[in-house]
Amino acid sequence: MYMNLRRIRRCQCVQLMTTCLVLSVVMVCWEPLDSNVVSHVKSYSFRYLVNGFTYINKSLTIPREQARSFSNFHYLLDHPDKCVGKDVLLLLFVKTSPENIERRNAIRSTWGNETYIQTALGVTVKVVFALGAPRTKKWEPSWSKRSGVGSQERLIYEDRIHGDLIQQDFLDSFHNLTLKLIMQFHWMHSRCSHAHFLMTADDDIFVHMPNLVSYLQDVSSRGVTDFWIGRVHRGAPPIRSKDSKYYVPFEMYQWMSYPDYTAGAGYVVSRDVADRIYQATLTLNASLYIDDVFMGICANAIGVSPQEHVYFSGEGKSPYHLCIYNQMMTSHGHVEDIYDLWKAATDPQVKQRTSGLKGRLYCMAVKISLLCKPYFFNTYPCKAAFL
Predict the structure, then answer these.
(1) What confidence score (pLDDT) does residue 39 get?
(2) Most buried of 48, 119, 192, 356 (most Cβ within 10 A)?
(3) How far apart are CA 87 and CA 84, in angstroms?
(4) Which domains, ranges and CATH numbers included, belong to the chain?
(5) In angstroms, what CA-CA distances link 160 with 149, 154, 251, 340, 366?
């Protein structure tokens, strides 16, 4: 009996110590965890119960004269005849920064090569790069000062060679991404309104152009309208932490949830949606500097909802495998590997080895092992393995 009491007390002591340890960990982690959980609960409640997105539209609607300040910038580099006289399937804007010339050259040599697209795929796709003005000379890097050539001069020279830079005179920065988005829709409206589709993408994205062209040709042949496709974020709350890159103060956006939107890494809209988004930008306050969220606000104002495509990635990079390449649309986070990926993804062996019943079953097994993992997120979801 005495031994049993000692054993019980020892067990109680272990339980007490364990409880104290768990409570200590919870107390340390509770504040960020609590903030994240509460913000998402509020967001989903607002989205599904209150459904107050009409109030968002009203609160952000401003007079046209005031809205013009977000688009009334001069073009430093422009190509107004880029689309003239051509049946353009896709106008593809790549968001880039002035210093990222190597990324632009990589895109021009791989998936964004217009000559390859015209010759191999038989369609016209116009690829242009959207950028703002570089910082003033006092911010120039030391190597630029030694060369005696400023950033804008280098851009002018680059554009003289390639003829694909679209630049306005707002400062190119993270907080001006919404201005860059507005520029794209305004440029299409005035320069390339007959293009069937508009795509906006980051300059570290990989686009499987043969797959995308085939998909868009099918969509176009069916006369689909209200088309907006990409990686969809639903019920996302504003980030109120000042330590975050995506911090949005209450004064800028007072609501508990964003309208649904697609990840800014890459998405596609049809011509009719692009024109209505342009119209929306003429009356909405664009001071919110998260461009993909602002796109969601504009789309909500015109009554268009995004559609999920499992092979459009979010911020993640897709696995390297031919079974992935067979259906890939976009993958994010590619810079140094873009040449190798382009060669591998467009190899004729991909279609040969993934076709037929045996190839499809093999690829399903491979994709399950690659995509259906609890720690694998922000690129293709597990359900993509079964499509």
Answers:
(1) 54
(2) 192
(3) 9
(4) 65-308 (3.90.550), 322-386 (no CATH)
(5) 16, 10, 43, 28, 46
